[in-house]
Design a protein that fits this description.
149 residues, alpha+beta, Lambda Exonuclease, Chain A, five-stranded mixed β-sheet, two-stranded antiparallel sheet, globular
Length: 149
């Protein structure tokens, strides 16, 4: 009985630590952006890691917004979500959905994440009908960028 309780408490503690780390990283990323003059703002450690991924530069620039709320109907079902970072470039008719994930094992919830990003894409297709919409995941555990298209 004690071993089972210890297992449950240890699992709960690991989950709480992971959730806290994820919340903290999301908050750090939310404050990072590069202005039109090329000046970076926000957490210096996170900015340094982002600068190691050239594809992220543009996604953190003037055409992007952090924590973007979105709502709409898909298949008769109302959905309300918040996109971690949304890049919309009207000149190139490009939209990029960037989702932050803190998992250390990228495979466990991968299908669930694909479904989540496909919902975002479906909602945005209703707004940006003639734009190319792509999805990416920034794995914050190792700061790798995964293109899903």
């Amino acid at each position: 009985m004690t071993n089972k309780l210890d297992e449950i408490l240890n699992a709960y503690n690991r989950q709480q630590i992971a959730m806290s780390a994820g919340t903290n990283m999301h908050a750090r990323l939310r404050g990072v952006f590069c202005d039109a003059a090329g000046n970076w703002h926000g957490d210096k450690d996170v900015v340094a890691r982002i600068k190691n991924i050239p594809e992220l530069f543009e996604l953190m620039g003037p055409y992007s917004k952090s924590e973007v709320p979105i709502a709409g109907t898909i298949g008769g079902r109302f959905i309300s979500r918040r996109i971690d970072r949304l890049y919309v470039n009207p000149d190139t008719k490009t939209v990029v959905i960037l989702d932050y994930k803190t998992d250390t094992d990228k495979k466990i919830y991968f299908q669930k994440y694909i479904e989540q990003l496909n919902e975002y894409r479906a909602l945005l297709k209703q707004i940006f009908r003639h734009f190319n919409i792509s999805c990416k995941i920034l794995w914050t555990n190792d700061f790798t960028l995964e293109n899903l298209d």
